[in-house]
Amino acid sequence: MTAFRGLLAYPITPLTDDDAPDLDALGRLVRDAAGAGVDGVVVLASSGAGVTFDPDERDAVVRAAVAAGSTGPTAVPVHVAVSGASTREVLARSRAARDAGADGLVLAPFSYLPLDEAEVVALFEAVAADVDLPVCFYNRSVQTAYDLTPGALAHLARTTNVVAVKDAASTPARPGGRVAELRAATDGLGVSVGLSGDVPLVRGAEPADAWHTGLAALVPAEYVALRRARTARAVPDARVARWLHDLTAALADLRPVSGFHALATLLGVPTAPPRGPSLPVPPDGVARLREVVARRPGG
């Protein structure tokens, strides 16, 4: 599988009761996702609350994920999100990920103030000059106030180790056709154009080279079945599709990372709530998730 193609699962970073990364629980998530048939795993991204961990914790998480992804009957590449508020921080995280055995990097460019295109390009050029790993450009336009242009993506694909883009499947202001636009700009450059956003992915986003999703790390069997059906242009299993529709609807009403931690607990994955300032899901939200989980096909 070429880097950053297919179904990419973004697990939470489970926490023990004393607020430390639970490496055994993380390893289980990675192995279960690999066994279900995902095409890759990305740790320490938004779902994994990567910016809340110090360098030693991040290193332990990456090493645990790499070990889990490379063992058992199925092996998957493990990529690492390395976003930081400064180029120095991004480079340190990129080198640490490489040294811990990562197969690739995922990078969302951000800083305290919104970056312009020249600053974004300079960041990715600095990473390419320092670390020889494939990079996925994580375009978080709503959060960072920078929206990747097709021209900038084509430039980075030609001059750096950017081989993929993770773009929002939908935003309030963006019309359809974004995947085709990015593909046209990078024709012949081998760029994987991927989408994220569980609600639009489950409900019928435009075809893309990759799906990037945190939910796939918690319910990988169902997500793999849906992705394979969509890729084959077949009709998905109606029970699975309906259940994922209901689950994404319930999660959409919750804070993202907190919702994933609550869902993980209901699915039997041991974890405390995410680190503050994220707050635990309130009881009514947990009850709604519990009702949906109880209807899991084959559960």
From TrEMBL:
The active site is at residues 138, 166. The keyword Oxidoreductase does not apply. GO terms for molecular function: 4-hydroxy-tetrahydrodipicolinate synthase activity. It comes from the Bacteria. The keyword Lyase applies. Belongs to the DapA family. This is Dihydrodipicolinate synthase family protein. The lineage of its organism: Bacteria, Bacillati, Actinomycetota, Actinomycetes, Micrococcales.
